[in-house]
């Protein structure tokens, strides 16, 4: 199971066998059932997760009780409330499993010990932060500059698996539109 994570690390940074063994000694495996919340608003995110198999969602709940999905993570991707993890302050986000999922995780303490011990882990972290920043920046740009129809069409073209694997409710919260608007867009 951990080979997928090793491959993910080595796509971003070259890691020798000894360092990879040290990194993997800090990793814990988890299986979570669908609808399991692994982080709630107000909790501190003390673990960095990597989703090997399944689907997870990172989202907010507004004061009005509306869900706003920031990120949907599928197989072979990191999933964590990064701001809470970095600052060790309470999260404003929730993370839940949309499908039965298999996760790897590393504690905050081990993560940052490895940063000091292993230069390639620090490079991995920097490159991962750069990718996360670029992805979230593109998401904000899309939400600000594209119409609901354009956002839906872009998602359908670039990430059709979102439409195939996610409920209309989750897709709508990801696109920042109502379920009714999504239904109208899908029917055209």
TrEMBL record:
Domain of life: Bacteria
SMART domains: cNMP
Residue ranges of domain Cyclic nucleotide-binding in the record: 11-115
InterPro entries per record: cNMP-bd_dom, cNMP-bd_dom_sf, RmlC-like_jellyroll
One Pfam short name: cNMP_binding
Name of the protein in its database record: Cyclic nucleotide-binding domain-containing protein
Protein source organism: Flavobacterium johnsoniae (Cytophaga johnsonae)
Lineage, opening ranks: Bacteria, Pseudomonadati, Bacteroidota, Flavobacteriia, Flavobacteriales
């Amino acid at each position: 199971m951990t080979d997928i994570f090793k491959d993910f690390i080595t796509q971003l940074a070259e890691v020798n066998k000894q360092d990879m063994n040290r990194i993997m000694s800090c990793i814990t495996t988890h299986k979570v059932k669908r609808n399991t919340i692994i982080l709630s608003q107000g909790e501190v995110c003390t673990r960095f997760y990597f989703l090997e198999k399944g689907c997870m969602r990172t989202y907010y709940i507004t004061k009005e009780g509306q869900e706003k999905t920031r990120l949907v993570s599928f197989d072979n991707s990191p999933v964590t409330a990064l701001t809470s993890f970095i600052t060790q302050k309470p999260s404003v986000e929730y993370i839940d499993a949309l499908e039965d999922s298999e996760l790897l995780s590393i504690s905050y303490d081990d993560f940052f010990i490895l940063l000091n011990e292993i230069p390639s882990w620090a490079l991995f972290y920097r490159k991962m932060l750069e990718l996360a920043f670029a992805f979230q920046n593109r998401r904000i740009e899309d939400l600000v500059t594209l119409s609901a129809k354009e956002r839906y069409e872009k998602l359908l073209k670039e990430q059709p698996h979102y439409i195939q694997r996610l409920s209309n409710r989750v897709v709508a919260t990801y696109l920042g539109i109502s379920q009714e608007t999504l239904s109208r867009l899908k029917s055209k």
